[in-house]
TrEMBL record:
Keywords: Chaperone
GO molecular function, one term: ATPase activator activity
Similarity remark: Belongs to the HscB family.
InterPro entries: DnaJ_domain (IPR001623), HscB (IPR004640), HscB_C_sf (IPR036386), HscB_oligo_C (IPR009073), J_dom_sf (IPR036869)
J domain mapped to chain residues: 90-162
One GO CC term, this protein: mitochondrion
UniProt-listed GO biological process terms: [2Fe-2S] cluster assembly; protein complex oligomerization
SUPFAM superfamilies reported in the protein's UniProt record: Chaperone J-domain, HSC20 (HSCB), C-terminal oligomerisation domain
Record protein name field: J domain-containing protein
């Protein structure tokens, strides 16, 4: 008996204590049998709870200690108290979106509005300090996730980060020289001619659209190296767009 239990993942002090109390075939001690049975029940309960926790990523409510099985639960299903921000949950999981470059931004916005309606700090102003603090943390996290996933550039950068491919400033500035030369020409053109801003803006919008499609196809193929290169270019086109808006006096 002790050998079969010892082969499991729980082979520490629980096993050794359990083995000692297992009654032998010749033992008629009811006390020993009862002790061994109780310890077996305790061990099975412990093993089951650890197994479930490792499989579901469950956690405990800080208020009532009830189990929260889902990693993206914002409130305890038992006492309905707001919880601490979930750990090891991606922005995609948090916002109920697939882990993909191509997402439905309308659904994303709807999810954002629903969560902010539930989590906004104003709704917790009459509650405890801890609940107020947690609402601020949760609301801030949801806002950060939404802003990151809403735009193609930040979504692409985040996806690359999830795959262990962050883009540094040095890397962004070391892209191919021909492309950088075109970017510099574009900046000079914007700076020197206000009359051509509409034309330049239209052209850059087309470049942005093409760039987003290239990034999308690269991620769809699982070609992260190409995705990285195209996201760098998308970053430059986005910067040009911001520069045009500044020149036009937009916010």
């Amino acid at each position: 008996m002790s050998k079969s239990v010892g082969s499991s993942m729980f082979s520490g002090r629980f096993i050794s204590s359990f083995s000692v109390l297992i009654p032998t075939a010749s033992s008629n001690s009811n006390v020993a049998r009862r002790k061994s049975w109780l310890l077996l029940v305790q061990f099975n309960n412990y093993a089951s709870s650890v197994k479930n926790k490792s499989q579901t990523g469950s956690r405990r409510c800080w208020k009532c200690n009830s189990e929260i099985r889902s990693g993206v639960e914002f409130f305890c299903p038992s006492c309905n108290i707001i919880q601490m921000p979930p750990r090891k949950v991606t922005y995609f999981e948090l916002m109920g979106s697939p882990t993909s470059f191509d997402i439905d931004t309308r659904q994303l916005t709807q999810r954002y509005k629903e969560l902010q309606w539930k989590l906004h700090p104003d709704k917790f102003s009459d509650l405890s300090k801890k609940e107020q603090s947690l609402s601020e943390e949760q609301s801030s996290l949801v806002n950060e996730a939404y802003q990151t996933l809403l735009k193609p550039l930040t979504r692409g950068l985040y996806l690359l980060n999830l795959n262990g491919i962050p883009i540094t400033e040095d890397e962004a500035s070391s892209t191919d020289t021909k492309f950088l030369a075109l970017v510099m020409d574009k900046y000079e053109e914007i700076s020197s001619s206000e009359k051509k801003l509409k034309e330049i803006k239209k052209e850059n919008n087309g470049d942005l659209e093409k760039s987003v499609k290239k990034v999308s196809k690269a991620f769809e193929r699982g070609d992260l190296e190409t995705a990285r290169k195209e996201v760098v270019k998308l970053k430059y086109f986005s910067k040009i767009d911001e520069f045009i808006k500044d020149r036009e006096g937009w916010d």
